[in-house]
Amino acid sequence: MERKCFIIGAGDLTVGALEVGESDLVIAVDGGLGYCSVLGVEPDLILGDFDSVSPEETKALERLEQQIPERVIRLPREKDDTDTLAALKEGLHRGYRNFRIYGGTGGRFDHTFANIQCLLFLKKQDAVGYLVDGNRMILVLEDETVEFQKGLEGILSLFSLSQESLGVTIKGMKYPLDRAVLRNDYPVGISNEFTSEQAVISVEKGQLVCMLQWYCGQEL
Asked: CB of 170 within 8 A of CB of 177?
């Protein structure tokens, strides 16, 4: 099984405990440190400029830096990379190519949008990433096909991230498409619905943001 890198951000979080394997890596990003106890995980690395941590967490970080300094990476507040992007780069540097970002949506919309761009950044690094929260997930497709298991119940929406996404095909959903063109100035891919069939989404050329929301208790 491919090892995963879990990024824990400080956005909205409704998911319960995480299942983390021995070979997986958990990176708490700034204020995401406060979620780790909720998720039942111990971060392998804590990274950020720490402008959104509580006074108690600040003291804990200082103690950890004294005891195990290699587990804490402090970033300057004035920088080009977001804290999340810096965490992804650290995971890539350590050889990970499969990323799950929790607490990466909600809150400030600019942070959410930046994290969607981070998913495309991972694509360019021959890696894959998902923004996950409870029964919601966001991924980016680029010149590829993805399949979802049969029996899902919920909603899927597609948005063109590139100016045009060519050859967009949707099979096994309520509203199919056959090699359509989606543009980034016309939201035509909203609120498609899963059916009992296996859903297949493909784009021949271009970049699509895929947003899913499925009923609680189901697994992808």
From this structure: yes
Judged by DSSP in three states, 30 sits in helix
Q: Please say if the pLDDT value at position 220 is more than 70.
A: no
Given a contact cutoff of 8 angstroms between Cβ atoms, the answer to whether 206 and 142 are in contact is yes
- Expressed in angstroms, the distance from the first to the final Cα of the chain is 16
Burial classification of residue 183, based on how many CB atoms lie within 10 Å of its CB (0-12 exposed, 13-18 middle, 19 or more buried):
middle
Residue with tokens 């997930």: 137
Q: Which token pair is 213?
A: 């929301």
Report CA-CA distances (Å) from 149 to 23, 98, 133, 197, 200: 26, 19, 19, 8, 9
- Give me the half-sphere count of Cα atoms (radius 13 Å) on the Cβ side of residue 181: 4
Of all helices (H) and strands (E), which one includes residue 94? none
Alpha-carbon distance 91 to 137, whole Å?
A: 20
Contact 115, 9 (CB under 8 A): yes
Residue with tokens 């761009």: 117
58-89: pLDDT as tens digits: 787 788 888 888 888 888 888 889 999 999 99
What does the alpha-carbon distance between residue 178 and residue 47 come to, in Å, rounded to a whole number? 44
**Can you give the pTM of this predicted structure?**
0.90
